[in-house]
Amino acid sequence: MKKYLVMVVAAMMATMNVNAQNEDLKHEIGVSYGVGISTIADGIGNAIGSGLWDGLTGYEWTNDTRVGTVAVEYFCHTKNPRLAVGGLVTYAQYGEDVMKKDTKQITGERTRHYFSVMPSVKYYWVNKNHFGFYSKAAAGVMMLVDKRNDKEINKNETDNDIFFMGQVSPVGVEFGSKVRGFVEAGFGEQGIVLAGLKYKF
User: Fold this and answer.
1) Would you put residue 10 in left (φ > 0), alpha (ψ -120 to 50) or beta?
2) How much is the pLDDT for 34?
3) pTM for this structure?
4) pLDDT (average), residues 176-201
5) What is the DSSP code string of 66-126?
6) How far is 34 from 41, CA to CA, in rounded Å?
7) Rounded CA gap, 44 and 90, in Å?
8) pLDDT, average across residues 19-33
9) Using CA atoms, how far apart are residues 90 and 191, in angstroms rounded to an integer?
10) How many CB atoms neighbour CB 33 within 10 A?
């Protein structure tokens, strides 16, 4: 009986120690993949604009490809257990070919690269050792690198633009201990829907 009592007490102390360690974890770094608004906007714009463009020229956009938003984020938890501040960087890509309608020959291509840097804040509505429910907001800048290649005239062009960009995720859920999975739903460059893993330390 004493043996079992000692084992139970030892297990309880170990659990309390793990919980205390988790409460002391102030930093986190995460990686996520989502469907961001840049590639969505490009896809919608291509679907609408290509019909008009195809009707006025002998060319059409085709073979569109996209890489959803890959993001790396860091947060530091403040003395307020519900509040964390940090930032995130993102990358996404959208590409398409130009095809001559009569010959079906590919005569050019365009690839757009999106890079964003955004300070961010996260507020936990529920913040437990193995579960969190939160909302997140971020705002910063995005650089668009637009590369075009016209094979008919052997010409390459690159344009760079800077835009204001943001992310608002009203619903975020995370689960786990030091290594946590998370899922968010919102609107912005990081994703309309996104999922990833984070490590707390």
Assistant:
1) alpha
2) 96
3) 0.79
4) 96
5) EEEEEEEEEEEE-SSTTEEEEEEEEEEEEEEEEEETTTTEEEEEEEEEEEEEEEEEEEEEE
6) 14
7) 21
8) 76
9) 10
10) 16
